Amino acid sequence: MTTIAPKKALTDVVLDVRDLEVEIAIPHRPVIRPVRGVSFTVSAGQRVGIVGESGSGKSLTALALMRLLPPRARIAGGIAVLGDRDLTRIAEGKMAAMRGGRISIVYQDPMSSLNPIMTIGRQITEAITTHEPVGGRAARAQAIDVLADVGLPQPHRRIDDHPHQFSGGMRQRVMIAMAICTNPDVLIADEPTTALDVTTQARIMEMLAHIVEERRMGVLLITHDLGLASSFCDDVNVMYAGRIVESGPSRDVLRTPSHPYSAALLESICRLDSDVDKPIAAIAGQPPLPHQLPSGCPFHPRCRHARDMCAAEAPVRTTSTGREVECHFPLEQLPPR
Ligand SMILES: Nc1ncnc2c1ncn2[C@@H]1O[C@H](COP(=O)(O)OP(=O)(O)O)[C@@H](O)[C@H]1O
Ligand code: SF4
Ligand SMILES: [Mg+2]
Predict the structure, then answer these.
(1) Is the minimum distance from the CB of 1 to ligand 2 under 6 angstroms?
(2) Which residues on neighbouring strands pair with residue 35, listed in sequence order?
(3) What percentage of the chain reaches a pLDDT higher than 70?
(4) Are residues 130 and 242 in the same domain?
(5) Is the CB of 315 under 6 A from ligand 2?
(6) Which domain holds residue 124?
(7) Which of these three, 130, 160, 181, is where a domain ends?
(8) 307 and 329 Cβ atoms separated by less than 8 Å
């Protein structure tokens, strides 16, 4: 894994998410709430991670911010302020102008964003002319520049190729180019390299780090991989069962996790100095489904530090030394074994 040095803390918040709630109403079933009171901020040039196992509510958080939730899902509470606009409340017409202009998203599967029957050049120039007052020729020149920035070789030639003419890694670079071509304030990257091999993943994350630093863009990286989040992000939010259970500087969370779930995720990272290509300790059991949330702390059935109180009472969020944790018995407060 390539370690990208975290940058110093920044203060000019561009995205302020507070108490975000997402609800899904499926006919003849109880309404579920897979995102429950999520709060975090992203500053200009800051790299923020949301990390957690599959099903923890990461993608729904991202889709809520983009106002691209699936049918039957809706934002049920909270705010998400980008600049001076609350993304949870503005009219769809205004949101369409923000989306792809001031906030954009990169998914795991580039083909979900790229049109297979259009050249990449046309797709990028259309994205530019939709959001910026430039003509076709200038937009094409800008598209070539942005393709060069994301590391596409010979962009002036490849701009007229179709998505299927690129490898998986190059296609992902093209999707990143499309997402950043309008210089958004915030780029959301939802598992952007999960489908790629480790070397390609490292190269793309390095390129992304370079680009967001240069353009002073805020990034929200969504991943199941705490190692990736910690190497890329300044700050990390650990998500479980729809809630952020620990947040803080990624180096601190990685070095001394406070929440037992963060510690368990950390233990499940493959050891890079080992020959064994397997997690050293997987977390027993599965995360709960939103309609089967355990009582009290939702992690209690899987937590090796759980006590009676954990099943009875939901822990409240506490803050100490720049870290916020939602646990009755944070690890640093446990007596040494
Ligand atoms: N369209 C949907 N309809 C019903 N449930 C959904 C839908 N999308 C997501 N969910 C449920 O919401 C939870 C969180 O989903 P998601 O945000 O995609 O998780 P993650 O990205 O962390 O893997 C999961 O338990 C999932 O089953
Ligand atoms: S509140 Fe209890 S069950 Fe939940 S993480 Fe903390 S110790 Fe474990
Ligand atoms: Mg997801």
Answers:
(1) no
(2) 22
(3) 92
(4) no
(5) yes
(6) 103-181
(7) 181
(8) yes
For residue 291, report the distance from its CA to the centre of ligand 3, in Å. 18
CA 274 to chain centre: 28
Buried-exposed string 36-72: b where 16+ CB fall within 10 A, e elsewhere: bbbbbbbbbbbbbbbbbbebbbbbbbbbbbbbebeee
- The secondary structure of 225-287 as a DSSP string is -HHHHHHH-SEEEEEETTEEEEEEEHHHHHHS--SHHHHHHHHTSBPTTSS--SBSSPPSS-P
336: enclosing H helix or E strand: none
How many folded domains does the chain comprise?
A: 2
pLDDT tens figures, 8-58: 444 699 999 999 999 999 898 899 999 999 999 999 999 999 999 999 999
CA 192 to chain CA centroid, nearest Å = 9
DSSP assignment string, 176-198: HHHHHTT--SEEEEESTTTTS-H
**How do residues 148-198 score in pLDDT, each as one tens digit?**
999 999 999 999 999 999 999 999 999 999 999 999 999 999 999 988 899
CA of 56 from ligand 3 middle (Å) equals: 8
DSSP structure class, residue 292: G
What are the tens digits of pLDDT across the range 105-161? 999 888 888 999 999 999 999 999 999 999 999 999 999 999 999 999 999 999 999
* Strand-pair partners of 190: 222
262 and 279 share a domain? yes
Q: Is 211 helix (H, G, I), strand (E, B) or coil?
A: helix
Q: Whose CA is nearest to atom 3 of ligand 1?
A: 24
- Tell me which H or E stretch contains 59: helix 58-66
Whether residues 93 and 153 fall in one domain: no
